[in-house]
Write a structure and sequence with these properties.
Elements lengths: L3 E3 L1 H4 L11 E3 L1 H5 L30 E12 L5 E12 L15 E11 L4 E10 L5 E4 L4 E4 L2 E6 L4 E7 L3 E9 L4 E2 L5 E3 L7 E18 L2 E16 L9 E8 L4 E9 L5 E10 L2 E7 L2
Antiparallel strand pairs: 1-2, 3-4, 3-15, 4-5, 5-6, 7-8, 8-9, 9-10, 10-11, 11-14, 12-14, 13-14, 14-15, 16-17, 17-18, 18-19
Length: about 290
């Protein structure tokens, strides 16, 4: 995974001292390094309950909501790919006590991207914010996850997800209706990443959601529709000391099957291990591979 930069404004619970220069860190440090003391860990199979588990799990250090999809314009002449991911990262397990409304133990990061396949163009954006003053956060009821005006919501009565994604280069508004059941990845939702107990995440997917909405791009507006994939994970330490990232793929096949694959990487980018799931209707098989 690429190197990330968080400004001091985001990484400290408060700002009582002059700010040093921004510092970088590796994703592996967030998902594997540091003390896990005080945080819950993914160590055993647990029951999943929906819609509750669509919402936040603040006892764990890391969590994300990950949407990818393919869209086509209503006239069939334009094809697009989109992605939005909202990440929650806890700096410490307990809330911060302070008179300042700016202080928090949670920070957020989000990525958004759009590929215009017909024109061979791609654009991507990212944002960072602390979970303070309503800048970013996640709430259970009604379910809403947001970073500024990027947000993901769920209408529990209909089961339809809603995405609002305004960016400098495009504005995408979608409704996403599940077209497949929830799939628990790994061992009944426990996805082991390395041999050490606790280096795992709780992981589920909704591999097919029918998407429809509006895309504002280059001064015009297009009605779009297509299919999306939702991934949800939360953990405290997922990667081992010799793992630095992973490659992840999701495929929606024309025969109705879905396939998820990820491959972990070592310090030099070499493959460490691979795992995946293939789903056909209610039939499910877990795939595992050595380096």
């Amino acid at each position: 995974m690429r190197r990330l930069i968080l400004l001091l404004l985001l990484t400290l619970p408060g700002c009582d001292r002059p700010a040093p220069e921004p510092q970088g860190f590796q994703v592996s440090e967030v998902l594997g390094g540091g003390s896990a003391e005080g945080f819950a860990r993914a160590t055993a199979v647990r029951p999943f309950r929906f819609p509750a588990d669509h919402g936040p799990h603040p006892a764990y250090r890391n969590e994300w909501w990950y949407l990818t999809g393919n869209l086509r314009s209503a006239d069939g002449t334009r094809d697009f790919g989109f992605q939005i991911t909202l990440f929650r990262i806890a700096l410490r397990p307990e809330p911060v006590g302070s008179n300042s409304a700016w202080r928090t133990n949670q920070v957020w990061m989000a990525h958004a991207a759009l590929s215009d396949l017909s024109r061979g163009e791609h654009q991507a954006y990212e944002r960072f914010a602390r979970q303070a003053l309503g800048l970013a956060g996640a709430q259970r009821a009604p379910l809403r996850v947001w970073l500024e005006d990027w947000q993901l919501q769920l209408d529990e009565a209909s089961g339809v997800w809603q995405v609002q994604l305004p960016t400098p280069g495009f504005d995408l508004t979608l409704e996403l209706a599940p077209a497949s059941p929830v799939v628990l990845q790994g061992d009944q939702g426990l996805s082991q990443k390395s041999a050490e107990p606790g280096n795992a995440s709780y992981y589920y997917s909704i591999p097919r959601l029918r998407a429809s909405g509006l895309l504002h791009l280059n001064g015009g507006q297009l009605a779009v529709q297509g299919m999306a994939w939702l991934d949800r994970e939360w953990s405290t330490s997922a990667l081992g000391p010799d793992q630095t990232g992973w490659d992840w793929f999701s495929l929606q096949l024309e025969d109705g099957r879905e396939l998820m694959l990820f491959r972990l990487r070592g310090p030099g980018g070499e493959p460490d291990a691979g795992r995946g799931t293939i789903v056909r209707g209610l039939m499910r098989a877990v795939l595992m591979a050595a380096p």
